[in-house]
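Lab notebook, bench 4. We co-purified these components, and the gel suggests they stay together. Before we commit to crystallization screens, I want a quick structural picture of the whole thing.
Request: model the full complex, all chains together.
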Amino acid sequence: MINVGIIGAGRIGQVHAKSILTGVPEARILAIADPYLSETAAAWAKQVGIEGIYRNYKQILQDPRIEAVLICSSTDTHAQISIEAIEAGKHVFCEKPIDQSLERIAAVEAALRASQRNLKYQVGFNRRFDHNYRALRAAVLAGKVGEVQFVRVSSRDPEAPPAGYVAGSGGIFMDMMIHDLDMLCYLSGHEIEELYAQGAVLIDPAIGEAGDVDSATVSARLSNGALALIDNSRKAVYGYDQRAEVFGSLGCAQSYNDTASTAVISTVEGVVSEKPLWFFLQRYMVSYQAEIRAFFDCIANDTEPEVGIESGRISIRLALACKKSMAEQRPVRLSEIAD
Amino acid sequence: MINVGIIGAGRIGQVHAKSILTGVPEARILAIADPYLSETAAAWAKQVGIEGIYRNYKQILQDPRIEAVLICSSTDTHAQISIEAIEAGKHVFCEKPIDQSLERIAAVEAALRASQRNLKYQVGFNRRFDHNYRALRAAVLAGKVGEVQFVRVSSRDPEAPPAGYVAGSGGIFMDMMIHDLDMLCYLSGHEIEELYAQGAVLIDPAIGEAGDVDSATVSARLSNGALALIDNSRKAVYGYDQRAEVFGSLGCAQSYNDTASTAVISTVEGVVSEKPLWFFLQRYMVSYQAEIRAFFDCIANDTEPEVGIESGRISIRLALACKKSMAEQRPVRLSEIAD
Amino acid sequence: MINVGIIGAGRIGQVHAKSILTGVPEARILAIADPYLSETAAAWAKQVGIEGIYRNYKQILQDPRIEAVLICSSTDTHAQISIEAIEAGKHVFCEKPIDQSLERIAAVEAALRASQRNLKYQVGFNRRFDHNYRALRAAVLAGKVGEVQFVRVSSRDPEAPPAGYVAGSGGIFMDMMIHDLDMLCYLSGHEIEELYAQGAVLIDPAIGEAGDVDSATVSARLSNGALALIDNSRKAVYGYDQRAEVFGSLGCAQSYNDTASTAVISTVEGVVSEKPLWFFLQRYMVSYQAEIRAFFDCIANDTEPEVGIESGRISIRLALACKKSMAEQRPVRLSEIAD
Amino acid sequence: MINVGIIGAGRIGQVHAKSILTGVPEARILAIADPYLSETAAAWAKQVGIEGIYRNYKQILQDPRIEAVLICSSTDTHAQISIEAIEAGKHVFCEKPIDQSLERIAAVEAALRASQRNLKYQVGFNRRFDHNYRALRAAVLAGKVGEVQFVRVSSRDPEAPPAGYVAGSGGIFMDMMIHDLDMLCYLSGHEIEELYAQGAVLIDPAIGEAGDVDSATVSARLSNGALALIDNSRKAVYGYDQRAEVFGSLGCAQSYNDTASTAVISTVEGVVSEKPLWFFLQRYMVSYQAEIRAFFDCIANDTEPEVGIESGRISIRLALACKKSMAEQRPVRLSEIAD
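Here is the predicted assembly.
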């Protein structure tokens, strides 16, 4: 039984709490901390048997019974809390991104190296634990598509975030496409070497005024020479559109959207099937539980997390390369972004 | 918080226990009883915090703290335990079928009527809580297919049971098609008035020697005049094939199989997608949790279960009509089977 | 080059004429005959270079240059014209059914046997030449589904015929389901031994008043013991619904509807794909050309037509068995219908 | 009745001849010319009733009965023959591309303007007449996807051409992607303003040695600000992969591959459906007939061809922009390519 503390009780913190309560019997949540903890959230935590309900995360770090923490606070606190947690001897599961700055990611890594204890550090790229993407990757690794020649990810949100959110998000590449950049690598088994990013404000002018774009594409070249494409939109009115394909010398593996049912209704209007599941909480719920389970497995079995600091760092370098490419209107090599 | 006892710790008893532990926080399993409880099962029950682990189900019935029981024992004990549980003042969730005899079902009903307490009695037709069938029924009830004119259910198991199982199962109509007969009614919103059943031994001669068939069809007429068809097979090598369609004056609603992923792989061999989920535990897991949750909702909110004794009785009458039809090689009206 | 005469210039006669003109360069239409030939049809025939345009089909039979005739006149004339054509030494392609009476079919057969010449006689079961059904049959013959255990055909028209048509059509079994009964045999490679037919008037009361039904099902048993089901409707508002499936010990082969395009449109309303092609002229156009080509191939290469008199006779016996079963409300064995 | 001459009797010339013979009764092929006309081709032409069979195309141009010519000769002769045909007063259907040089396209245009007669000039972008792409465009024009924000075309050949062919083809952008660039514009209803092209040799090193690439992507920006992506491969082992999607403010329209049948076979191996139709002759056969029919319609009704010289010119400018972008490794604006 692993004792856990959750830092940050917002939407994703609650998702992880529920995952553990309903599907990870080998872990027990001893405490949860959030400076803005609502009455409702506190009552819920009490009801499900979480004994420590704090405003200050340091109370979690100081509890010697707690072996592992989940960092679900706001992005700008991830690196600092990661370092403190490592120094307190805790295993860390940190929501993505670790930080938008490569320097601060390096500081987390340094803390991890400096630690005397064999601590696990996992970054929350939940899509790596999704059933569809895992099926694609398994097919690729099994050689079913042969040598990878082309990869594509289409990723579209069902509704655009408010411009206020966008301002602090790091922009579409850092906030949204970071998942898709990670998927290109995960699905193909290769790294991105060069990319060209385009962006446009086509959905909400307020997003443009906030200095961001709401539609974006990336054209990339992978380390094995393969080509790759990503398309992103902040608003697909029909729901969360999440598709991918890996093409190679022996074939092509594609994944389609998940739906709430397989029902198809034929009328004079047409043959109508269900829209994609609405958004990430619906679509990726199972993957959130799977990644948390994997984290505790790493602790229990002393294995390395599938998504460690290096994956977190590469995704930030790629997002920075996208921003640079869009700003300078030219292809950018990953090597231009200091490690 | 509703205190629950589970009677019968076999496969389905454990499914319900897990459903409650992981997804029904408003219920607490106080005890589990099984005369053949394995060491492993007992250890598991202890580990998940079930305090009472008994061989005799009467210990559960005698515990005044327990408000509701789940009857998951062998079919021949359902009616007797149902009656005792009702007499002990417990709400009852009983696995299907209540009994293969209409007399014993009547006895259960009599006990329920005799009870002074407002007890809930739900029968385990889990498919009524399945996302695909619910979507079909919702479309039908919403009038999307207009007046129902035709209903079809295809239901095929991935592997035939051992002939030994078949002998005590009541036969394919009682054991397997009972679900599909219930689905015809559930999906169409109408009752079956007449049916013609055919059976054949095409898969395993031992099933024939045990007096049963392994392949069957039913051709039926519903109370609104609509026609209906069912096909059953004990062995679809590609997995659990579970499809339905409702056709009417304004259109047609169909449901297809669920799969483990949406991955599609195109090679020189063809375009290959995933097989159906393997069997009922994979395919209907979510519906098991949903039906249990619905049961506790009925208790908490004092509403009538969606699937009560009457549904359980009709399904048995229909299965008996099928057996009679196959034996006498003629269509049989439901009214021929005494209520 | 084979010289052809077409008897009957209605819808199906024109379909065959166009098939030959546009896709069967090895045949030349010398003449067309129809007592009710419209001005438009005559003008069209002249324009496409058909030299003989007659009211009386006997003029075609008397033309010694004509080797083959296509009989596309009304059903009640098929047998008589077949016999005269055979006696005139012509190869015959006869639209289905040859006749609704087994005696008259026997007379055609007798004429064919009496003929000194090696004449070909093909019946117009065009669905045997359809790409989807051929793909199913090919899979079955190749052993991909193993031993056949179950066959199903769903066949629904997009709009009900006028009650006036129904009266002279021989009824739904003779007019519509005859194709599906043939498909059960064609797809499975086995004969129907016994069947139980149900009918209902659910669409148009006038059809009932005309003594027919507009919805029907058949539950059958094949010669190898396999079970089979057919469902028919005279009106599927979403278009011509034509699907089939063959299930066996090694798998299942299914065919779905053809559509005008593969376009799929996702909006807030749902994910909408195209409806089935509207009716038989759209859906089966390619098969009409294929059957005619096959007929000329048989003549050119002196091979037996894939669909000869025997297939025509069996389909009528099956339709008669359906009528008897519905009337007597009991399963009927094919052997009850005199050969 | 329009009298036609076909210049070039290779594969595509024969496709057009057959289209006319079997589906365009309002046109008559008077002559065919090809310096390398095979014995077989000549025999076939004679058999189908083409009276003039020449080695020199000038004989066609000199025939005053011929009103329209189809130019199906090698690409390097298109412009010269176009000019001569226009000067001879013939309507022209010219296979794509008109020429790889913008100067020579301008010369054709000048000839057309100089002509006193009201001649029609259509370029062979057959995909604009394909049922799937027309369905997508119709949906877009009908406003079903709202304002276009993103367009994607995936286009993959089933087998790479010999390196020898590649050398004279103008390269992948001029030879293959030219269709897809045209599709971006056709489907979206907007022009391409800027693009970034990437290429790679991943399939056949001989193609690289011939100075070309066998895999390519384009990332583009359209005149309305929308983003667009294309991916090309010379070899998809599973067949001709031709898909497109148009995404906008109100939804998304996608097209999928056509197949030879709708058959789906489920076995222990998986659920297998048909591969895409093998290559362009199978996949686009109907569109070839449709474009030829549209050409004759323009002549008959004196309307402008849907695909005129301007479309031909833009596609060449786009292909040249792709080549420049790949060579200079930077995004290129269409305005950089002289009109």
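Chain B has a mean pLDDT of 96. Worth comparing against the SEC data before the next meeting. Chain B touches chain C at residues 147, 149-150, 152, 154, 156, 196, 198, 200, 202-203, 215-219, 221, 225-229, 231, 233, 235-238, 241, 247, 249-252, 329-331 (CB under 8 Å).
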